[in-house]
What we know:
Blueprint: H1 10-13, H2 20-38, H3 50-70, H4 80-100, H5 103-106, H6 110-122, H7 124-128, H8 131-137, H9 145-169, E1 174-177, E2 180-183, E3 186-189, H10 192-195, H11 197-214, H12 219-251, H13 253-257, H14 259-290, H15 308-311, H16 315-334, E4 338-339, H17 348-351, E5 355-356, E6 359-362, E7 386-393, E8 399-407, H18 419-425, E9 429-439, E10 446-456, E11 459-469, H19 477-489, E12 492-493, E13 496-505, H20 511-528
Parallel strand pairs: 4-12
Antiparallel strand pairs: 1-2, 2-3, 5-6, 6-7, 7-8, 8-13, 9-10, 10-11, 11-13
Amino acid sequence: xxxxxxxxxxxxxxxxxxxxxxxxxxxxxxxxxxxxxxxxxxxxxxxxxxxxxxxxxxxxxxxxxxxxxxxxxxxxxxxxxxxxxxxxxxxxxxxxxxxxxxxxxxxxxxxxxxxxxxxxxxxxxxxxxxxxxxxxxxxxxxxxxxxxxxxxxxxxxxxxxxxxxxxxxxxxxxxxxxxxxxxxxxxxxxxxxxxxxxxxxxxxxxxxxxxxxxxxxxxxxxxxxxxxxxxxxxxxxxxxxxxxxxxxxxxxxxxxxxxxxxxxxxxxxxxxxxxxxxxxxxxxxxxxxxxxxxxxxxxxxxxxxxxxxxxxxxxxxxxxxxxxxxxxxxxxxxxxxxxxxxxxxxxxxxxxxxxxxxxxxxxxxxxxxxxxxxxxxxxxxxxxxxxxxxxxxxxxxxxxxxxxxxxxxxxxxxxxxxxxxxxxxxxxxxxxxxxxxxxxxxxxxxxxxxxxxxxxxxxxxxxxxxxxxxxxxxxxxxxxxxxxxxxxxxxxxxxxxxxxxxxxxxxxxxxxxxxxxxxxxxxxxxxxxxxxxxxxxxxxxxxxxxx
Length: 547
């Protein structure tokens, strides 16, 4: 029988179809994730660099593969054991991250998944020649809010301080309180997106990409340039704040918050890129003066026939990976927690009476704000379903400011904000923070919380607060995350509430008496709150804090 006239198998005629099962598997996992990112974290100013990093990473990966093929360095030497291990790690990360809303795991899983596929099909040596593309993808991952909040405040204060002194040196009427700049009749709050960790993270990515594209042969030179990217990023952020301040000063608040605010972001990146190139040029001049090594041109060949290692793969591993991704996606859906909170709790405004005991409500006293979404939606910056802010006064004339905030769904990045983070974000300085307990629980049991002494808005404020998540009182952002994660793995999507009482004091010596007054007030308030409202304390006694 003559077989020469028989048509070739479809996969032989169209070898790219061998990659179809793998593409379907990756699409099943990550298309929903990217959709959520574009409508969530990536839609905010803080993480707007995410999609740019993703596109640049993929383009760089394509160009690097093409370059390796031109240089005969794209080898096909499969390494099944490490490849399967990396792939399994990525799939576990995805299942946990997707089900528990941990973006660090969900989005970060793309790196070990793609790395595992590369090692599985082409080997460790080929992966090592493309490592930067996978490393660069890490910059698209939205950072945990607790990490950002902790590290952003010092950066914002530093940038605010530098901008204040530079504008004062330039002759402008400028004053600063924390991260709030007052310039003429305008006040400017230095936001996280303008001078925070995310901005620094983005500029560091830009610098590293520049370094990898330039590819200097000197390791010391690359290390020096990578280190200098941090102060370069700080300088670029300072330039952006100065530009925004000048726009607002000369053109008004509408211009500062409108199109020109976005334009200042371009100024940020252009300034950073210009500084990076300037520093690199200066280092090049030093290298030339000292006779250091210079970059040698690489030898390139035609690509005729060199795509064969990429095309000549078996379809069977792709089918196995597709099956694994289907199992992973199904497992992630099964692990999604369900809401345990009351479906229609009594609004906070109706749950707390305007007067109780010796206390009655008064109007017109300003206190540190708690964000709430105007459209009823929730986000990282606006995590609450219901907020109540009141001020009470007793017969002795003592004023007590109260803030209650509830969230029926505690998730990793949409959860209760801690006062030690919220106060500094509004220009306050935390002078002292002390863990404590409040005897307000059932049967006189104690509830873990904190005392804060803050300074800002031309006053000292003594603050007492606790945060309840489900049946626990976690102390700190990491403890909150771990509690939410444990509840999520158990299938529970717990509710949460912030209970805060504060008083204005004249000096630090009055803080102890203020805390004692707040203890009595909070105990009485817990007793009179309507039982149909979200619980201020857990039903079961809690005598120890979660660290």
